[in-house]
Amino acid sequence: DVDIRLETNSDYSKYQSFETKSNTKAEYRFDKLKENSYFLEFKKTGYISETAVIKNVKAGTKFNLPMRLFK
Predict the structure, then answer these.
(1) What pLDDT is recorded for position 40?
(2) Taking CA 41 as the corner, what is the angle to CA 38 and CA 43, rounded to the nearest 5 degrees?
(3) What is the pTM of this model?
(4) Which of 20, 32, 37, 54 is in Cβ range 3.0-4.6 Å of 9 for a Cys bridge?
(5) Is 65:54 a contact under the CB 8 Å cutoff?
(6) Given the DSSP bridges, would you call strands 3-8 and 36-43 parallel, antiparallel or unpaired?
(7) Does 14 score more than 80 pLDDT?
(8) What is the pLDDT of residue 69?
(9) What Å distances lie between residue 43 and 12, 38, 58, 62, CA to CA?
(10) Beta bridge partners of 6
(11) Distance CA 61, CA 14 (A)
């Protein structure tokens, strides 16, 4: 399982943070995100952490963000 943290990437007065874990198929999901830009961090013990920024997410949008972690 990979630990995944998602944070708003904008005005600190509207800062939000969400966390989840991937499943055995390396899938994960964040529901009901508001329109914003987001910073994501992927972590797993023994692996190099990875980060990504997703800009201008529209409310209700579905997207895939494949991420590969290396030892």
Answers:
(1) 95
(2) 165
(3) 0.86
(4) 37
(5) yes
(6) antiparallel
(7) no
(8) 95
(9) 23, 16, 26, 22
(10) 18, 40
(11) 20
pLDDT tens per residue across span 27-68: 999 988 888 889 999 999 999 999 999 988 888 888 888 889
Half-sphere exposure (CA, 13 Å, Cβ side) for 38?
Answer: 22
Considering Cα of 17, then 30, then 3, then 43, what sign does the dihedral take? negative
Which of 31, 40, 36 minimizes the C-alpha distance to 15? 36
- For residue 70, pLDDT beyond 80: yes
Q: Do 22 and 4 touch, CB atoms closer than 8 A?
A: yes
Sequence-distant (≥ 6) Cβ neighbours of residue 55 within 8 angstroms: 9, 37
